[in-house]
Amino acid sequence: MYGLKDVRKLLKIYESLPKVKYEPTYLDICKYSGRRFEEICSRILKFFFQPKNEHGLKTLLLESLFESLNITEEYIDDNVQVITEENAEGKRLDILIKSNDWIIGIENKIWANVYNPLEKYGNRVEQYDKQKDYKIVLTLREINNKDELKHIEKNGFIILLYTVFFESIKRRIGEYISNGNMKYIIYLYDFIQTLENIKGNNIMNKEMDTFFAENTDKLNELLEDFQEYKSKKYQIVIDKINDLKIKINEICNPIKWWIYQNDDLGMYKNKHDIGIETGFITHDNDPISIFRIQFTSWGNKYWNQYGEQIKKLYPNGELKISGSRAYLKVYEIDGKNEEEILSKLKECYDCIINLK
To answer: CA-CA-CA-CA torsion for 246, 273, 317, 344, nearest 10 degrees?
Structure first.
């Protein structure tokens, strides 16, 4: 059993956890899961790595890649070729970039572990026999697993984080943007934002997961207490609505009032044409703080038939049209003032009865 201090402490921890409103990018909307998504990302990178493609950003991504690896001496010539899914002894290297003097092999990892045959990939890169070769694991997550690190280092690969790569692109893009094709610049930013969303959501989810795992028993008890609290509050509303129904039916004849879904007290002139709906509004933790009365029509033709008559009697009413329904709110009354509530209900009832 835990007390109020424990609840406040728990809520304080929860409030401190990072919460970012998630807005899906275009790539999020189209995204495939797992390996398929990595293939799509590789094809996007291929398009932007190729300097002569329609994006107009020329060597931006290649220069950003070299800068991210602290390589400054490489010349990027016009003969750069970019290949995806390069065959490496029956396996597939995600991206291969080659120029006259150098070659880069990239194993593209969004979030998965590095279990791939890096030895075969490395051999394929070296078979091109360029003056310099670079073998890269491009990853969204920081790799800390000892076995993975050993596997990567043993095969001569370098780890490059997407976050570092993207920082370089965003820092340098100002030099290229004036000649770039805005359509493809938007695509590039969408791609970057998509992966940053994945990174951010996984970090936040990890913190949330830890919080929920460490506090499961307390949270379950808190939820049970909260459900009991809500039930007690709601029962007050139900009891009061039932009490009002009995009393208003003693006053109004011949049409009787009904209750819909426990908390909506109402009546209609003829079934589902035009009538009255009422209910309580919670305020300052009081479930019956305010009593609302509104006229409701259940079809356009009924509001067209009766609406003007009602509005003449209630010119200050707040009208809302939603689809084929119309709602005219006419009263918000102190929920404790039963005498006034019954008086206004009878007044509105007489209005409905006398509609022509």
So the answer is: -20
